[in-house]
Amino acid sequence: MSSRARILAVCSALVVALIAVAVFAPLPVTIAYPGMTANVLGSNNGQPVITVSGTRTRPTSGQLRMVTIAATAPNADVHFTDVWKAWWSKSEAAMPRSAVYPGGGSVQQVNQRNLNEMKQSQQEAATAALKHLGLSPSQVKVDLKLADVGGPSAGLMFSLGIIDRIQGDGRGSDLTGGRNIAGTGTIDADGTVGAVGGVPLKEQAAERDGATAFLAPKDECSDAKAELPAGLKLIPVNNLNDALASLTALRTGGPLPTC
């Protein structure tokens, strides 16, 4: 074998080795897909998701459905083949692990952080709802129970659920008008709706579970409308008042905001 042939053979072997490493080495990536949804006006594990004491409540119909994404565990090995498969799938997405699990840590640490974020989100949601209704948190108590769900992205739907339980639309009707309405977005105590991740996957989960309208943070319009499922109406909102006004428009046939 000539020296040139030997050099080419060595180079080819190196290229094959590099390709093998690229294909089989774990990547700092998480594969996400549509997760569970839950009607915040309903029950979870046999208990009401929303319990209010200190003021009158009302029966409701329709659904206000919070949505989630599911993802490979923070310690799971994800390879190039998994990313390639997700690239071509509408029901999967390859996302930087740091975006799905900011702060890193063990599975137990991630779960605890998510639970803490959910608890904080529930407190903010209750405060925003009671403030909108002109009720004092010192007199009205709101208890939110939703097992096996973490993170802050259900805040908007919790606030809407609390308002529907206590007042509805203020005229004896449900906020939903009997519809199945899903949505996502964090919420501050002042009612500001914040961005969340994985909106296209959450829309798929909402459509899968029967929702016909989807409330999403306006800042995420681009992602939200990119792969919007047919039959799911996208409604962008900036704050709690926007969401309530849009629900009124849905019930009455009024104009709705668009992305």
Which labels suit this protein?
259 residues; alpha/beta; Ribosomal Protein S5, domain 2; six-stranded mixed β-sheet; two-stranded antiparallel ribbon; 39% helix; Ribosomal_Su5_D2-typ_SF
Architecture overview:
This is Lon proteolytic domain-containing protein. Helix content is 39%, strand content 21%. With 259 residues, it is of the alpha/beta class. A 6-stranded mixed beta sheet has the order 6-1-5-8-11-12. Strands 2-3 form a two-stranded antiparallel sheet. α4 packs parallel to α5. The N and C termini lie far apart (66 Å). The model is unreliable at 4-23 (pLDDT under 50).
Topology:
Blueprint: H1 3-24, E1 29-39, E2 43-44, E3 47-48, E4 50-53, E5 63-71, H2 80-87, E6 93-96, H3 97-100, H4 107-133, E7 141-144, H5 155-166, E8 180-183, E9 186-187, E10 193-194, H6 199-208, E11 213-217, H7 221-226, E12 233-237, H8 240-252
Parallel strand pairs: 5-8, 8-11, 11-12
Antiparallel strand pairs: 1-5, 1-6, 2-3, 4-7, 9-10
